[in-house]
Write a structure and sequence with these properties.
- The protein contains 26 helices and seven strands.
- By secondary structure, it is mostly helical.
- It starts with a helix and ends with a helix.
C-alpha cells in the first residue's frame, strides 16, 4: 500500500541509513571546511559593514578609526584560532568549550557555556539568513517586501538539507563556500591592483554625505573611546562560529585532532585575508553606509522605503563596472548563498552540543537520538523552529538581530580559555617528560593570552551592546541555564527513585516485590466480542480474584446488560456501579482506589477492551472513554492497566505488508515482507478457576 507521508519523507531526507553506516558520514578536510567554517568565513561579508555603521554615527569624521578597529579584530582572530587549536588537540572527543569548562571549572560553569553557545547558534542562523536575504535584495530590490518569507523559506531549506545527513549537506555547501572565497579574493585583488595603478574603484555611495546623529560629531575623550570600542565589538562578529570545529571533532576522519586543527588554521588564515581585503577596499573606494538611510544626504529615491546596498554590493559594483555587470551579480549570488548556508555551521554545532547535553541529562533524551540519516534530527528541527521564530519576530532585520549576537560566543571563548589554563596546570603538575612539559607551558601561555583578550572583549560587548538588545540574549541564556539544571534534577530524582539497592536486587528473583494477591477487574460497557475477549485474557492471567465492572449511566441499558450476562451464563461476577451524575471515569477510579485502600499489599489489574481502527477519523469515534480512564488509573500506585485490542475490519488495510524503512522494527512495525502477527480469537473459558487448575495438572501428568 502506498504511504504518502513516508514517500514525502524519503523524498526530502533520502533513504534511511543503518547504524553501522555512521563511519561513512565522517568528513575529509575539504568537506569539513565548508560545513564547520562557513560561518566565520561568510561573516567577513558583514563584519566590515558593522564597523562602518557604528563609526558613521558621527558622520564621516571617525572613519579614520576603521583600520585600527580592523587590526584589533584581526589580532583577536589570530589569538582565538591559536587558542582553539589547543582545545582540539587536548579534547578530541568533541564538546569544545562545554567539555573543557565542565571538566576544569565545574558543571555549573559548563552549563553557562552550553547555554551561551545554544543561544549563539540560534542567532547565527537568524543573522546569517537575514544578511543573505539583504544581499539578495541589494541585487533585486523588488523583493524587499518579501524579506521575511524569503528568510523563513531558506531556514526550512537548510533544515531539510541537514536532515539528509552531515556528509550530504557538506557536498551541497562545499561549492558555494569555495566559490564565495574565490569571488571575494578576485574582487579584492582586482580592486587593489586597480588602486596600485591609479584607477582606484569608487563606490556609488562615495558622493553621499552622512548626517551625524545629534551630538555625535564632536565626540572626544571617553565618548570617542566608547565609539571605537562599540565599533570593535560589532566587528567581532567576524569571529562567530570559530568554536564550531572544536565542537565537531568527532565528525572528522582520523586522525581527528590533526585534521580539525589543520582545518581551523586554514579557516583562520582565509577569514583574516578576506576581512582585511574587504576593509581596505571599502576605505579605498570611500564606501558610505548609515544605520538609517535617511542620514545619507544625496541618497536617490525615498530613504524611508528604498533599501540601501550592502558594502559587498557597493564594492562589487565599483570594482567590476557597475551594478548591472555579470561579475556583480555573480558576487552577490555567491555572497547571498554562502551567508544563508553559513547557518549550516549552527545546524551542525547546535545538534551536536544538544546531543552531548542530553547524554549528560541536561536536555531531553530525544536530543541524543539519531534520525534515519544518522543526524541528530530533533536538534536540527528545534534550531529551525526557534531561529524561524526570531526572524519572524524581528522582520528578518540584520541591524535588529546583530545586537543579540556574539555575546554568547565570547562567554564561551573566555571560560574555555580559563579552563584550558587549568588543564595545562594539571598536566604540568603530573607530567615528567621535558618535551611534554615544554609543549604544555607554550600552550598555557597561548590560552592565558586568549583568556585575557576574550575577557576584555566580553566586557566591551556587554558595555556597548547590553542596552541595545543584548540583554535579551543574556536573559535567554539564563533561562536556558535554569531549565537545564531543572531537567538534570528531574532525571537524577527519577534515577534515584527507580534505583534498586543490592539487598533488594539479590532477592528480586525470589519475588520480593510481588504483591500478596492480584485482583482482576474487566471493564464492561456492553456484552459483545471485545468484552468476551477481555474476560478470556483476564482469566488467562489467573488472578486471585476476578470481577467484571460496569457503570449504570442509563438504567434500561444496564438492565439489558445484566439480563444478557445471566443469559450467557458468564462465570465472572458482574459489579454495577451507580452513577447518578452520568459519569463513567470517576466511579471506576474511586472503586479501584477503594480496592487498593482496603488491601494495600494487593495489586489491581484493570483490563480494558479497546477497538483497533485503520482510519484516522475512526479514532475520534472510539476509545475516548478508555483513553481517559487509562490516563487517570496510571497515576494510582499498585494498579496495572492492560489494554485488550479488538481489530475492526478497517484495521486490516493498515496492517497490510508494505516496504518498511530500516529501523521500522524498532518502532514496532512489521518486518519487510511479513504479515502482522495476530492472536487467534478464542472465546473465554467460563470454567471456575479450581477446575481449570485441576485440568492443567491432569494435562501435565
Amino acid at each position: 500500500m502506498f504511504n504518502l507521508p513516508q514517500a514525502l519523507k524519503r523524498l526530502v531526507i533520502g533513504r534511511a541509513m543503518r547504524s553501522e553506516e555512521l563511519g561513512e558520514t565522517l568528513l575529509p578536510k575539504r568537506l569539513a571546511l565548508p560545513i564547520f567554517a562557513s560561518d566565520p568565513l561568510s561573516s567577513v561579508a558583514y563584519a566590515t559593514q558593522e564597523i562602518l555603521l557604528v563609526l558613521t554615527v558621527g558622520g564621516t569624521a571617525f572613519l579614520y578609526l576603521t583600520p585600527w578597529v580592523a587590526a584589533g579584530v584581526v589580532a583577536l582572530m589570530a589569538v582565538v584560532v591559536m587558542s582553539y587549536r589547543q582545545v582540539v588537540h587536548a579534547y578530541p572527543s568533541g564538546g569544545g568549550s562545554y567539555e573543557v569548562v565542565s571538566r576544569n571549572l565545574g558543571a555549573n560553569s559548563g552549563l553557562v557555556v552550553a547555554a551561551s553557545l545554544l543561544v549563539d547558534y540560534v542567532m547565527t542562523v537568524a543573522v546569517s539568513v537575514a544578511s543573505g536575504v539583504d544581499n539578495i535584495i541589494s541585487a533585486l530590490p523588488s523583493l524587499a517586501d518579501h524579506r521575511v518569507e524569503l528568510a523563513l523559506g531558506f531556514v526550512l531549506l537548510l533544515m531539510a538539507m541537514n536532515l539528509r545527513g552531515v556528509r550530504e549537506s557538506g557536498r551541497a555547501f562545499a561549492a558555494p563556500t569555495y566559490l564565495f572565497i574565490g569571488a571575494i579574493l578576485l574582487m579584492v585583488v582586482t580592486g587593489l591592483i586597480r588602486a596600485v595603478f591609479g584607477d582606484a574603484p569608487v563606490a556609488s555611495s562615495a558622493a553621499y554625505g552622512i548626517v551625524p546623529e545629534d551630538g555625535k560629531d564632536t565626540l572626544a575623550g571617553l565618548g570617542l573611546l566608547m565609539l571605537g570600542l562599540r565599533a570593535f565589538a560589532s566587528g567581532c562578529t567576524a569571529l562567530t562560529g570559530v568554536e564550531a570545529i572544536s565542537n565537531g571533532v568527532p565528525a572528522f576522519r582520523a586522525p581527528k585532532s590533526r585534521n580539525a586543527a589543520a582545518t581551523m588554521a586554514v579557516m583562520g588564515t582565509t577569514a583574516v585575508v578576506m576581512f582585511v581585503g574587504i576593509t581596505a577596499l571599502a576605505l579605498i573606494s570611500d564606501v558610505h553606509i548609515a544605520d538609517d538611510t535617511c542620514h545619507l544626504s544625496g541618497f536617490p529615491g525615498d530613504c524611508a522605503s528604498a533599501p540601501q546596498q550592502t558594502v559587498i554590493a557597493q564594492l562589487a559594483a565599483a570594482v567590476f563596472g557597475g551594478d548591472h555587470s555579470l561579475l556583480f551579480y555573480a558576487v552577490q549570488a555567491v555572497t547571498a548563498l554562502v551567508l544563508i548556508l553559513a547557518a549550516n555551521t549552527a545546524f551542525n554545532g547546535f545538534p551536536l552540543l544538544a546531543s552531548i547535553l542530553a547524554e549528560h541529562r541536561y536536555l531531553p533524551r530525544q536530543m541524543h537520538t539519531r534520525g534515519d540519516r544518522l543526524a541528530f534530527s530533533n536538534g536540527i528541527i528545534a534550531l529551525a523552529v526557534v531561529a524561524g521564530g526570531l526572524l519572524w519576530l524581528y522582520d528578518a532585520d540584520v541591524t535588529s538581530l546583530i545586537h543579540l549576537y556574539i555575546l554568547g560566543v565570547f562567554t564561551s571563548f573566555t571560560l574555555s580559555q580559563i579552563g584550558m589554563v587549568r588543564h595545562w596546570n594539571r598536566a604540568l603538575a603530573t607530567g615528567t617528560d621535558p618535551a611534554v612539559r615544554r609543549a604544555a607551558r607554550r600552550s598555557r601561555v597561548i590560552n592565558f593570552a586568549g583568556g585575557v583578550t576574550t575577557a576584555l572583549v566580553l566586557v566591551i560587548v556587554l558595555l556597548t551592546k547590553f542596552t541595545q538588545g543584548a540583554w535579551l540574549a543574556v536573559t535567554a541564556a539564563a533561562v536556558l541555564w535554569l531549565m537545564m539544571r531543572g531537567i538534570r534534577r528531574h532525571y537524577d530524582r527519577v534515577a534515584e527513585e527507580l534505583a534498586v539497592d543490592d539487598a533488594r536486587a539479590g532477592s528480586a528473583g525470589a519475588g520480593s516485590a510481588r504483591p500478596s494477591r492480584v485482583h482482576g477487574i474487566v471493564l464492561v460497557s456492553q456484552v459483545h466480542k471485545p468484552t468476551l475477549r477481555a474476560l478470556g485474557y483476564a482469566q488467562a492471567f489467573a488472578p486471585d480474584s476476578l470481577e467484571a465492572l460496569t457503570v449504570a449511566v442509563e438504567r434500561d441499558a444496564t438492565g439489558e446488560l445484566e439480563r444478557r450476562w445471566r443469559e450467557l451464563d458468564v462465570q465472572v461476577p458482574l459489579k454495577v456501579l451507580d452513577s447518578p451524575y452520568r459519569e463513567i471515569t470517576k466511579p471506576v477510579v474511586q472503586y479501584v482506589r477503594e480496592q487498593r485502600r482496603s488491601s494495600p499489599q494487593d495489586a489491581v489489574a484493570v483490563f480494558i477492551p479497546e477497538y483497533v481502527v485503520g482510519r484516522w477519523w475512526e479514532h475520534l469515534l472510539h476509545n475516548q472513554s478508555a483513553l481517559w480512564l487509562k490516563s487517570r488509573l496510571l497515576f494510582t500506585p499498585g494498579v496495572m492497566v492492560i489494554s485488550v485490542p479488538w481489530q475492526l475490519t478497517s484495521s486490516d488495510k493498515a496492517n497490510r505488508p508494505s516496504r518498511r524503512a530500516p529501523g521500522a522494527v524498532r518502532r514496532g512495525e512489521p518486518a519487510l515482507g511479513t504479515e502482522p502477527r495476530t492472536e487467534p480469537r478464542t472465546e473465554p473459558s467460563t470454567a471456575p478457576r479450581a477446575e481449570r487448575e485441576k485440568a492443567s495438572a491432569r494435562d501435565r501428568a
